[in-house]
Cadherin 15, type 1, M-cadherin (myotubule)
Amino acid sequence: LQSTFSQALGYKTKSPCVSGQAGREDLNPAVLYPWRQRSSGGLSRVKRDWIIPPIRVLENSKQVPENLVQIKSDKIFTGEVIYKLEGPGVDQDPKDLFEIDDKTGWIRSMIPLDREKYRSFTLKAFALSPSGERLENPSTIEIVVLDQNDNRPNFSQKEFAGSVSEFSVPGTSVMSVTATDADDPTTDNAILSYSIVGQESIPPLRVNKTMFGINNETGAIYIRDVGLDREVVKGFRLILQVADMSGMGLTSLANAVIHVTDINNNPPRFSPYLVSFTNKVDFVIGWVNATDNDEPGTGNWETKYTIAKGNPSRNFAIRTDPVTNEGILSVVKTLDYETQEVYTLTLTVENVNPLSIKAPRDPVSSATVVVTVVNENEAPRFNKDPIEIVVLESVVPGTVLASNIAYDPDNAKLKYDILRDPEGWLIINHETGEITARTPFNVRSPHVKNNIYNAVIRVTDTDAGGISTTASLVITLRETNDFFPQLFPLMGTVCSESGRETSGLFLSAVDEDLPPHAEPFTFQLQDINVSANWTIIQVNETHAVLRPLVELETEEYAVTVLVTDSGTPSLSAYAQVNVTVCLCGKDGECKAEAAAIFGTRVGVSFIALLVIMASIALLLLLLLLAVAVGNCRRHHMKKGEGLLVGDSDEDIRDNVLNYDEQGGGEEDEVRQHNTLQLAEASYLQPLRKDYPDNLPSPSYPRKPPADPTDIEDFINDGLEAADHDPNVPPYDTALIYDYEGDGSLAGSLSSIASASSDGDQDYDYLNDWGPRFKKLANMYDPR
């Protein structure tokens, strides 16, 4: 048993249980007893299975099929034992690599094995009876494929690239290369060795000595010798070799290209050292050149030019052409021939990158440039561009805004023009350039942005060529207080209830001026009589409340309010506010009977509808009155009565005769005089009103007759009041302005001129009639 056990563990002991072919004893035992167990008399226990050593098989063996090992059971069975093998390589993928002789138990390899594909196989061996009954428990058999050196090492790249600075010292690392081998890394078959088998300089034949070495174990390439100069050689091409078996086995080749990089070891130098230019234009005047032996396109080759001397006023500048590396010298400030004719400049040149410590310590290269200024007809120049002016918007026409704005370096005669003045506010003297205001400015013009008005001025010399220059004229407008404040509303209602405080009318003021010439506004009552009954209370900067001081009767009142802005100087305006004092309901609206009388508030309620209906009825009544009065007047005219003047023909001057038929004249020729009709009972002393013409005229209430049961009496009373009113013309007659012919009622109407000289008449009183007669007053103004 001991001998069999030793053979089972793979020991080289001779035993009758071990048999096999000669020369195989060093790899595998001839016979395996995988099911052998220890036993003794009496009680026994089952031991663990024996540890079976792996079966070793060389890859790529050509002797196939090949017996590997024989397995047997050492138990005595009455019948035949059948052996069976299962697992990868037998009945599992990859199939049919191994098989077993079911009678003898020999395991064979059927085809050559490849270790790089399958390194080992784990199989199950069975001992069965002819009926298929297991005689022993399954036993595990492991087959290991042994490696052979059948794979060449391979570089990771066909060509490697690296770089190294010129003049690097020996031992400087350049790059590393790598290779792999598919053979077993635990054997010599995969131990690699690197070497350099060839070297070629770029360009060829520039360097003959070996410049690089390689670490045979790691593949690190390093500098071996001195003398790397990029100005001599640009790079090297190396032929690399890797071999397995520590350099004694299979080999492969690859290339390595090493570039020699530049260091700044060559300072730039001017060529030539003296350059002359003539300044014919005011920009680029010439190019200077410096040579550098370092690699083009790098910071070691790129140059930086400097004007070291001769440029105290910075009239010149120099820059580098990025393509040619030349210096471009240009004029950045206009040169004046009358001031200086020749400039001598000293230029220096350096590299963009600092010089290497390995570069020679030569002084910085310099060159001298002589620039000769050529006298030319120069363009005129403005003293300032832009020309800035600050002026009030209400500037007086003819005010001088700017003068002495330009000059000519050659003392040529100049001519001035305005190229752009969209509002036409400016006048320029073509010879002196003096700019004056044509009209007052308007800060609200669409061409004024942020209170700035822009114009363009041109000045041209009158010598040959006519060179011109333009400049911007920037006018900053300051706001002036040129608009009167306006008050609104100009009519409203105030509720009056006995025993309760009377409500007020809210007033507001606006001003088209900008701050600080607008709000805050002040509100005042100027009339002493009005101030006794009314007061005005300032609410805020733009609002006030007009409120009665005493209990007033329910009727309409004309209250004159003076509103003043905060400008400098301040402007004031009078406004007549028509206030209706009426009895109000719970909702604060005038009651129906009050609204019908005064008609100052119209709402959208049922009360408002009653007011509208009452107003229509009153309008129809007035229309009937007007028709009746007209008929009566015609009746009197037929009798020669009803004129406001006597029967004398000499007394009809400054009047217009009534012809019964009058054509539809224009509004500004014959006014609707019925608007001037006032009842005698409601006539009030006219108030002076200084407010815009678009404000509504005051409306005075006219009370209806107490009991108009007799419409004829009512009409006759109204007619009599109109006939005896000396202040207004009748309803159905035109105003008589002047005498229009001698002895003929159909005199010429081609002119409104009077029969007598206008010089004998005094029309100054027309100026007192208010803004509605302003146009007529201007027509007769002797000025």
